[in-house]
Amino acid sequence: MTITGMIDEVYVWTWKRIRIEKLEGKNREQRELKRTEN
Fold first, then answer.
1. What is the rounded distance in angstroms from the CA atom of residue 31 to the CA atom of residue 4?
2. Which domain of life is it from (predicted)?
3. pLDDT for residue 5 is more than 80
4. What distances in angstroms separate CA 28 from CA 1, 9, 18, 25, one per listed residue?
């Protein structure tokens, strides 16, 4: 694998992880809001 290929792999993997963490954070916040409303 070339160096640029390795950089692309790391970039994509990091981007996916950040997106997943953001989605999980949003879901957690929504659950907390629902809990405080009830």
1. 41
2. Bacteria
3. yes
4. 38, 28, 15, 5
Which sign, positive or negative, has the C-alpha torsion 22, 26, 29, 35? negative
Please state, in angstroms and rounded to a whole number, the distance separating the CA atoms of residues 9 and 3.
Answer: 10
Tokens for 25? 């954070």
User: What are the residue ranges spanned by the domains of the chain?
Assistant: 1-38
- For residue 5, give the 3-state DSSP assignment: helix
pTM above 0.90, yes or no: no
Q: Which residues contact 9 (CB under 8 A, 6 or more apart)?
A: 1
Q: DSSP states of 8-32 as a string?
A: HHHHHHHHHHHHHHHHHHHHHHHHH
